Amino acid sequence: MSSVTGVSATDELPGPDGRPPLSADAASTGRVGDRIFGGAATLSGVVVIVLVSLIAVFLIVQAIPALADNSANFFTSREWAPGGEEPRFGILEFLWTTVTASTLAMLISVPVGVGVALFITQYAPAWMRRPAAALVDLLAAVPSIVYGLWGLITFSPFFKPVQGFMEDRLGWFPLFSPTGISGGTIFFIGIVLAIMVLPIVTALSREVFDQTPLAHKEGALALGATKWEMIRTAVLPFGRPGVISASMLALGRALGETIAVTFLVSALADGSPWTWSLFNGGETFASKIANNAAEFSNPSKTGAYIAAGLVLFVLTFIVNSIARVVIERRKAFTE
Amino acid sequence: MSVSRISALGAIALSGALALSACASENTSTTTPAGNGTSAGATGSANCFSGDLKAEGSSAQKNAIDEAISVFQNACTDANIDYQPTGSGAGIKQFIAKQVDFAGSDSALKTVEKDGAIESEDAAKSCGSPAWNLPMVTGPIAIAYNVAGVDKLVLNADVAAKIFDGKITVWNDPAIAALNKGVTLPATPIKVFFRSDESGTTENFTKYLKAAAPEAWTYETGKKWTGKGEGKEKSAGVATATKGQDGGITYVELSYAQQNSLKMAQIDTGSGPVELTAESAGKTIATAEQTGTGNDLALKIDYATKEPGAYPIVLVTYEIVCSKYADAETGKKVKAFLQTFSSDEVQSKLGEQGYAPLPAEVATKVKTAVDAIS
């Protein structure tokens, strides 16, 4: 399958004055443009790696003293009382809220996003494709604070009765048990996040679906497949790695979303009982840090928040790594 | 060939930049004295200065200080005062680090050790002279509620503490009914909203509950909420949430309660229900005990006051200044601005912003202290 690029007829001919012919690699070295471009590209790559490593080092260095002073278990405690004589803090609550809200957002946005992308690339009439794609991209350009305001003012009053209904009818199920939190529940945050990340899923999926080789599609149709069968056998398998990486990009955004969540979320009071309910409040890593940034009054307290930030950093890193592994494996099957 | 062209372009750009910067510095040096002359002639009341004055700190006094800044800058067009509402802790830190000329804070400099440092001593060391706490703005904290059909509500510290601690959960609880004879209370569940960020408002409100109802409020006081309820971000967050929720109740600065047209509970201190007004809040400040000495006007508010007509839940924000600045020019600037801030003209305007003006006896002391800054 692999092809060698950069080989031209001159490479194969003997050089003037009896010099040996240029081989494919040697042909491109030594020229100023190649050196500059190659150097610049390498430098950019190195800078990104160094930058990410430095951020990790910064987070770790700042977090270690605070973690050393922590008298509660950092991973399993639900308390958050950093600073002071005997700091006690743990991230369990933030981890739960962050992960459940983001997962919920994914459960909603991925199927819908893929559906929208399929509609735009396969079903929509030609005149509609460009405007529809542009509209979806426009959603991606809406600043997150606007989603926050919209959620608070417009969507929240609409959602409250829905939540009440679900608590009434489905309250026996632990995930939907009533908790007395009125708005800003994990469920609500998840829906708003889903709307925020929808354009990311849609835009990238659309691009890959569009790349499906015509031969695959026509081949499927020629074998008597219906449109849906064609999509299922030709378009979806081809686009799967793209959809997965789009979802992971979206998940990264959902995990780290700050302003809209800070705006909407209902924090829990200290010592509220643990519940699995999605109708409970809670704070995500990002919202907790953003909400309290003004009161980072001493290094030990700041360190505690930075430690929470470090967990979010690692979480995002893990999510992206899993995505990479999945994509690599899928590639092997599709090609 | 191309290399020499690039370097020629660079040389032109460089010389252009030099020429521009030369122009710029010339401009500033000529305009400053002229500007000084006009502004000094145009103003009567304020001692104008030209140049920058930097301050940072409490967000609770942001609107008040903005009002003072606009009054001052209207009179003195060359003065440029910048106040960053980054929070009391950050303001004090920057003040001690000499990054700002004065700090705004919701509490006076601490005179006891906390986290290995004594704020007042660090500030004095940084100033080279004692640092003073000057109360400048008083912000009443309203207990704001939203209950359909209830336009007037009386609470006392004990009942308020039980509501905010989740011990009283419905609006027609007998304890609330006993204080509100003749008012029909619905059976709506009570939804408590608290500040999820650390705030001076929470600190002062819990100090009030602790002082006035020690049996009912057993928690520590502090910037972080320790009671029950549902947390929302900042004053705007709790006010909006209360407005959107039947049965909601929260504690919030007066200005936010007014802007969101929330109803405010009257407080029964033991001498009858007191409505929250600028006067009733000022009365509590006037009875506060001065804990600083001389011109250091740190106050200790008696939250459990039984003074008739005094509304007990108030927050005092201070300007923290050096008594004698190392740089005399800075001292003059701070003094000039704070003279305007403490003037009756500015203080009387603060009422419209949801603050209460300083009561007369405290205002006199503050003015004396400001005049003594050098």
UniProtKB/TrEMBL annotation, chain A:
Chief location category:
membrane
GO MF assignments: phosphate transmembrane transporter activity
Locate the coiled-coil region(s) and give their ranges: none
Keywords, A to Z?
A: Cell membrane, Membrane, Phosphate transport, Transmembrane, Transmembrane helix, Transport
The residue ranges of the ABC transmembrane type-1 domain are 95-323
| Its membrane topology | Multi-pass membrane protein
Any single Pfam family the record assigns to this protein: BPD_transp_1
Which intervals of the chain are annotated as region Disordered?
A: 1-26
Bilayer-crossing residues are: 40-64, 94-120, 132-159, 179-201, 250-269, 304-327
Q: Where in the cell is it found?
A: Cell membrane
Instruction: Give the UniProt record's GO annotations in the biological process aspect.
Output: phosphate ion transport
InterPro entries named among the record's database cross-references: MetI-like, MetI-like_sf, Phosphate_PstC, Phosphate_Transport_Permease
GO CC terms of this entry: plasma membrane
Q: Which family does it belong to?
A: Belongs to the binding-protein-dependent transport system permease family. CysTW subfamily.
Function description:
Part of the binding-protein-dependent transport system for phosphate; probably responsible for the translocation of the substrate across the membrane.
Record-given protein name:
Phosphate transport system permease protein
TrEMBL record, chain B:
Chain ranges passing through the membrane? none
Q: Which InterPro entries does UniProt cross-reference here?
A: ABC_phos-bd_PstS (IPR005673), PBP_domain (IPR024370), Phosphate-bind_PstS (IPR050962)
GO cellular-component terms in the record?
ATP-binding cassette (ABC) transporter complex
- Signal sequence coordinates: 1-24
The UniProt annotation places phosphate binding at: 58-60, 88, 106, 199-201
Entry's Gene Ontology BP terms: phosphate ion transmembrane transport
Which GO terms of the molecular function aspect are on file?
A: phosphate ion binding
Q: Which UniProt keywords apply?
A: Phosphate transport, Signal, Transport
Q: Does the keyword Chloroplast apply?
A: no
- Name the Pfam families on file: PBP_like_2
PANTHER family (alphabetical): PHOSPHATE-BINDING PROTEIN PSTS
What's this protein's family per the entry?
Belongs to the PstS family.
Q: What is the recorded name of this protein? A: Phosphate-binding protein
